[in-house]
Amino acid sequence: MPESYDVIVLGAGPVGENVADRAVQGGLSAVVVEDRLVGGECSYWACIPSKALLRPGEARRAALAVDGARQGVTGGLDVSAVLERRTSFVSGWDDAGQVEWLESAGIDLVRGRGRVSGTRQVTVTGPDGGERVLVARHAVAVCTGSRPVVPDIPGLRDARPWTNREALETQEVPESLLVIGGGVVAAELAGGFADLGARVTVLVRSTLLSGYEPFAGERVGAALEERGVDLRLGVSATSVRVDGDERVVECDDGSTVRVSQVLVATGREPQPDLGLESVGLEGGWLPVDETLRVLDGEGEPVEWLYAVGDANHRSPLTHQGKYQARAAGDVIAARAHGRPVDDGRWGVHAATADHLAPAQVVFADPQVAMVGMTAAAAEEAGLRVRVVDHDLGAVSGAAIHADGYTGQVRMVVDEERGVIAGMTFVGAEVAELLHSASIAVVGEVPLDRLWHAVPAFPTMSEVWLRLLESYGRPHPA
Ligand SMILES: Cc1cc2nc3c(=O)[nH]c(=O)nc-3n(C[C@H](O)[C@H](O)[C@H](O)COP(=O)(O)OP(=O)(O)OC[C@H]3O[C@@H](n4cnc5c(N)ncnc54)[C@H](O)[C@@H]3O)c2cc1C
Ligand SMILES: NC(=O)c1ccc[n+]([C@@H]2O[C@H](COP(=O)([O-])OP(=O)(O)OC[C@H]3O[C@@H](n4cnc5c(N)ncnc54)[C@H](O)[C@@H]3O)[C@@H](O)[C@H]2O)c1
């Protein structure tokens, strides 16, 4: 007999958990289906272990950058302690704590691989191979995340390269590591493994962090090189072969790199085999409307089917996915109870910030923190843009924070409306500055009002004042 719930959520990553939680808080019953660990990629193989692994190196460098503290740093990182701390943050890859949370939130869990098998219907293949059929009274939410892409480079698969999963599960540090890719994973993990003592080479086929303001990749790249990373821009791997314990990688600039391990950091792809053809849809990244309902081939929303988080590829970041999840869970409940739906720009049930104010932090060292649009993206979107830059190192708060602090901040102003369209901060420990910018962008705070938001002295936030001074104070008419 099929089991019935108001809402079925496929995938218990951070996004699926939040869709289910909001639906339950909205008075509905919910079940999540999970075939690995409750908590998803983010908790066990991505955000959490990577940040836990990166922080000790960053903390050590922070102490080394302050005269007086520097003298107290007498050794290097304790690699096994760093790995152990990482393992504690993922609870030894055991999801008992997260399962307990699901129970406390009133959400049922079915273990196994789920697929859509008809309208409002999901079939789950359990760990024992048995099948269960679940039926949803109101909605099915596909929150199945993404998986790493392994590019089609001859010999690469046979060399059994690391993806983020193996890299973040590792119990030992390879003697040498070749990273393929120039995005966020590459920028973060190249530095992380260099801190742990690996000899790291990075092959970037274009530029580092190409979706960000150009100075972000330049500053992160220069810092990686200072830490001994061999960063090769505009270079691609053409073949890989195994030679004893080594991987031999041939590159398109004629060079050969011999390493003990290869890490692919070349992006993500959607989960396969989600059964969507059973309801006339194609697989792949799932396009959605502003309330996260999947769009069919005609661009019309499928009334009962939602795709949230990485699965829709709007803004593949945990916090943006959880933001979507709050909107999706709430709108599913609103529709189920026949309550009004608020799906206009910045509406309660619309994930507007995905387009206008996605926030991101690259936890490289220096960090890159960005919200909204880059200058190039704003121009491409047809905005009349003015760009204001400031040297973050010239602010008193930064000089006190670290000797010789270097950093840069860019404010992208939408001149038509006199508001900020995007901000990027690059520098040590700038992540916590970002939310001020997110509030300015989402609140569409006029620049002349920002003069009344007074940054405390001497903090790095004084860069806001410097940016406003460079932009110019308005004169009353
Ligand atoms: C190395 C790395 C570091 C990252 N660091 C950050 C960071 O610092 N900050 C940040 O915001 N983002 C970060 N990200 C991105 C972040 O991990 C994702 O955006 C986030 O995990 C998306 O959450 P999700 O719930 O959509 O998907 P996931 O976390 O991928 O969860 C999906 C879940 O669905 C399950 N599943 C899939 N298919 C099925 C099925 N058919 N049946 C049952 N279950 C299924 C999976 O097992 C998984 O548990 C990082 C990514 C990587 C690779
Ligand atoms: N701090 C964070 O928020 C954080 C950290 C890590 C990852 N993430 C997210 O996880 C996702 C995955 O990150 P990622 O770095 O793997 O992807 P990405 O899309 O950020 O970068 C992929 C990189 O691989 C390169 N590439 C793609 N195919 C290639 C090929 N065949 N050969 C050589 N290079 C190739 C691209 O040019 C790009 O430089 C992203 O959405 C990212 O935002 C977020």
TrEMBL record:
Q: Which domain of life is it from?
A: Bacteria
Which co-factors does it depend on?
FAD
InterPro entries assigned to the protein according to its UniProt record, in alphabetical order: Class-I_Pyr_Nuc-Dis_Oxidored (IPR050151), FAD/NAD-bd_sf (IPR036188), FAD/NAD-binding_dom (IPR023753), FAD/NAD-linked_Rdtase_dimer_sf (IPR016156), Pyr_nuc-diS_OxRdtase (IPR001100), Pyr_nucl-diS_OxRdtase_dimer (IPR004099)
Q: Which organism is it from?
A: Oceanitalea stevensii
Print the keywords alphabetically: FAD, Flavoprotein, NAD
Q: Could you confirm whether the keyword Chaperone appears in this record?
A: no
Taxonomy, top ranks, is:
Bacteria, Bacillati, Actinomycetota, Actinomycetes, Micrococcales
**Which Gene3D superfamilies does its entry note?**
3.30.390.30, FAD/NAD(P)-binding domain (3.50.50.60)
Q: Where is the FAD/NAD(P)-binding domain?
A: 5-320
By sequence similarity, the record places it as follows:
Belongs to the class-I pyridine nucleotide-disulfide oxidoreductase family.
Query: Could you identify this protein by its name?
Result: NAD(P)/FAD-dependent oxidoreductase
Q: Which Pfam families match?
A: Pyr_redox_2 (PF07992), Pyr_redox_dim (PF02852)
Domain Pyridine nucleotide-disulphide oxidoreductase dimerisation per the UniProt entry, residue ranges: 359-464
Record flagged with keyword Membrane: no
